[in-house]
Amino acid sequence: MSSAQIRALEEASNGGPLDIKVENTWKPVECPHAAKRLDFVTFHYKGFLEDGKKFDQTYGREPIRIQLGVGMIMAGLDKGLRGMCDTELRKIQVPYRLSRKNKCKVWKNIPNDEHWLTFNIEMLTVEEWSLNKQFTFMDINNDTYLTQNELVKFTEKMRKEFGKTWSNEDIDNVMAAKYYIKYFDINGDAKIVYEEFSKVMERDMAAMESAKALRTKSKTKQNGRKRDPNVAWILDFNNDGIVSMEEIEAADTIIQNEPSIKPIFSKDEL
Ligand SMILES: [Ca+2]
Ligand SMILES: [Ca+2]
């Protein structure tokens, strides 16, 4: 029997697509902040094949630091790491369906064809998301501002190291970075400092809250993905917090033009 046939049988007996299995092996008494989407988490893992053989571990090298919910890790682990606390130990089993990832540096030792993968996770730190942490994450050379060139490098780094890609492959990294600068650069000096970044992000997040309230009131289902706070922030062209299929499909064309929402604020807002 092929592995695809085994999977089909297992899904049939499961009554639907297989999900991850989580065992809480150890939880600290104190948990000041449980990991949720957008938080930055730093962890070690040991990975095992279905026959129990260890295929990899991060012990002995740098632990892994990723942001949750933005495509930096296989879907099964992204889900399984949610709710973890500093120092917590968890065993997460990930089915084939949720272990897909692009070829990249950080995940290169993880086999791509295994039916089930088991990860023993040791959570080191959970850092709660903030605008400041987000800005620092993108400021890869740590000089307190973001430039077009740096944003291109950041996007490249996300792809090479973590296998994160644009959902529309026609999007060009340089065009996206250019658009991003125009979207955030309040004083027009081609650099984004934290004050500009936070000002524009806060404006957008307020707009997203209103859109969300409106959706709740009219019981409209959100149709698309949650907005990514990294360079892909620009893909939510109508500022409603949801990146729809239409927005993704039109993105490569839209970003060739000036942003329709300008980084301009009235006197009251500044
Ligand atoms: Ca910088
Ligand atoms: Ca949208």
UniProtKB/TrEMBL annotation:
Annotated PPIase FKBP-type domain residues: 38-127
Known EC number: 5.2.1.8
Alphabetized InterPro entries for the sequence: EF-hand-dom_pair, EF_Hand_1_Ca_BS, PPIase_dom_sf, PPIase_FKBP, PPIase_FKBP_dom
Entry protein name: peptidylprolyl isomerase
Species of the source: Acrobeloides nanus
Reactions listed under catalytic activity: [protein]-peptidylproline (omega=180) = [protein]-peptidylproline (omega=0)
Enzyme class, spelled out: isomerase
Key word Kinase present: no
